């Protein structure tokens, strides 16, 4: 029997990418996708009207709810799935809750109102391909894994891999290396090559079992951005759950469409740089406190490198994160 899957898509000021993402779900999600929860993190732009217009044009019922005090108002079920598409709903989270906080609203809604086997977090700047959901669910079922990732490919360079499922993490430095990064899309690499190396699944396309969520809880929202999936996977692994990789599942990722989170450090936005530094320190203190000195040294070295490049602004936001100051606090 096929396992049922619900998808959570988080939007923040990026409605047109979200519509492309939702269109890919309609086209390629397959019969296992029972429902889609779209969470809007108080975008304040034209995102919600754009999403509403798309739904109306596609004949998709899109009930809307508001998240208040830990529950939806009105607290209703999604419209029923039809023969042509899964159920959809739109939840207004009420504030910019960050990546974890916004996705957690969708996860919690699905837990309360649906009987899913797996939940799939899909970035709104990512696109499904045919068979991706089925391949992920199949690998999860075969392995009994708590989480699984797919082959994530750069949308703008579709012959190049961003990651085979996820990454290897170095706690001594507080940084990660995406497995398969830069490899040609056709390069063979199976689960036996990737799964022993996986420390976490890339948050852009992450499938998680209901059992895993019930055992370890939601994502940690103190990070706001970055390290949420590292934290989640670390907790899963420490609870005895495994991570899996489905090479036949492919997702195209525009990468950093919302906040400029490019993997190329010179192109990374200052906001992205700030939260990357802040979250690295928070995660290390929580899970690897004995590595705090080395991670601090690594962080300071990065700031000095920025100064050597005369990138004063980047060094400044690193210092703000290091000192626990807000992103926009003075000069």
From TrEMBL:
What are the UniProt keywords, alphabetically? Glycosyltransferase, Transferase
Keyword Transferase appears in the UniProt entry: yes
Q: What InterPro entries does this protein map onto?
A: Nucleotide-diphossugar_trans
Xref: Gene3D superfamilies: Spore Coat Polysaccharide Biosynthesis Protein SpsA, Chain A
Q: Which SUPFAM superfamilies has this protein been placed in?
A: Nucleotide-diphospho-sugar transferases
Taxonomically, the superkingdom here is: Bacteria
The similarity annotation says:
Belongs to the glycosyltransferase 2 family.
Name of this chain's protein: Rhamnosyltransferase
